[in-house]
Amino acid sequence: MQELKRLNDPLEIKDYILQSKSGFADFSMGFLYMWRKSYQFYYTVVDDTLVMGGGYDDESFAYFYPIGKNTEKALSFIEEDAKNRKGLRFMCLDDETAALLCNRFDNVCVTSDRRWSDYIYNAEDLKTFRGKKYAGQRNHINKFLKTFGGYEFHEITREDIPAALAFLKEFAATRTFNRSAKREFENSIDLVTDLFRYNCFGGFILVNGKIVALAIGERVGDTIIEHIEKGLPDYPGAYQVMLSEFAKHFAVDGVKTINREDDSGDEGLRTSKMQYHPILIKNKNYLIVNCLFKKIRPPVIIVGENVVLSDLTAEDKDAFFRLYTDDENNRYWGYDYKEDLGNAEPTPDYFYSFQQSLKDKCEEYSLAVRHNGALVGEAVFHNFDFHGGVETGIRILKSEQGKGYAKAALVAMIRYAKDVLEAGVVKAKCFKENTPSKAALLSAGFKKIGSDDTYYYFNA
């Protein structure tokens, strides 16, 4: 299967990012470059459609909504890819795409965190600060002019990069950074250093030849995303002057809005951004798709006719080992442990640990099939999809076959899947030549729904 690969350079996906109509800062070259070290991004292209996701670690990995012509195929790819991760999560969704995913999946949880909402402003408002509601901003600019006698706006060129970096270091000397702010500042250094490589532009304010404020941004569609805005505290009013000049010089030729990104939960920054009167605080919805695995609550005990299905224990290791290493009995199981072990010798501990690892990855939940307390086989719930479906599997020790344990276990599994897990469909399959398995599935209540060259497929 095609795999996601680490995004080392946003230029690799530039053509797709420029197609984005989300309006979020996250879908921009500068953002992806700034945060590539802190937030690990991965991507692939499926049928000319960008699939991308990322996170600080595996636990937080989430996908963006695909960008391109075939989002349906890309979403199907994401569902398969997510089976090898710790859940299916989507991030940075606007309300429309969140609604699309809610319609696609049966069991979802949608949240948004105000800390990460983008502040969107009318570009013309920020150019002039016209009107009563902007009286405060105009007062700051007037005081700046009165105090410092004037200023110059200078658009950054390649030759200005060293001076811009020197300004950022001077700015840092005036601040005490918390962990988040320090990371943002370090990332700002990176973006300014490679400003022109990543579709960005910027400018600074000069007072008597000294840089006192700086802003960096880029254009995506009809929106300018402002990634960096810094001003020296000894020059009150510098931020207002900088923002106005930034808008005047760059919000042209059809630019309608300016996205000044989020406030990261900083109350002072939130107050400041609200004072500029955003026309929209654009929520980034976070959506978790809950597959049925999450509904399994150990310890599991499923009582059937003459059998009990329950969690494997250390005492089951030897019997479980015999079940796994009976090659003749397992020729129709669909998994050969030798493919993973190679020339290494299998052990009871290996198989027990292997099965526990599948549970840890939410990939497969294995249960012992017991008669009078002894393990006589294994029952598995696996191939959990994100639409309320689960597949079942059963195998019985050769010495215990022909006693009705397979049928009894399958009947109990169907009941548990539908009543406890609330599965919309319970699936199974068997090799065409495995006549006993087919008979057990049909006798347990499964209905044959199709076949291919290898398998019969069943639903219950």
Please supply descriptive tags for the structure shown above:
460 residues; alpha+beta; Aminopeptidase; eight-stranded mixed β-sheet; seven-stranded mixed β-sheet; 23 strands
Describe the structure.
The longest helix is centred in the middle third of the chain and has 15 residues, at 179-193. The chain is elongated. The protein folds into 3 domains: 5-114, Gcn5-related N-acetyltransferase (GNAT) (Aminopeptidase, 3-Layer(aba) Sandwich); 118-261, Aminopeptidase; 292-459, Aminopeptidase (3-Layer(aba) Sandwich). The mean pLDDT is 93. The strands form 4 sheets. It has an 8-stranded mixed sheet with strand order 16-17-18-19-20-21-23-22, sandwiched between helices. It has a 7-stranded mixed sheet with strand order 9-10-11-12-13-8-14, with helices on both faces. Strands 1, 2, 3, 4 and 5 form a 5-stranded antiparallel sheet that branches. Helix 7 runs antiparallel to helix 8 (179-193), helix 11 (317-324) crosses helix 13 and helix 14 (405-419) packs across helix 15 (435-444). 33% of the residues lie in helices and 28% in strands. A hairpin with a 2-residue loop joins strand 16 and strand 17 (307-311). By secondary structure, it is of the alpha+beta class.
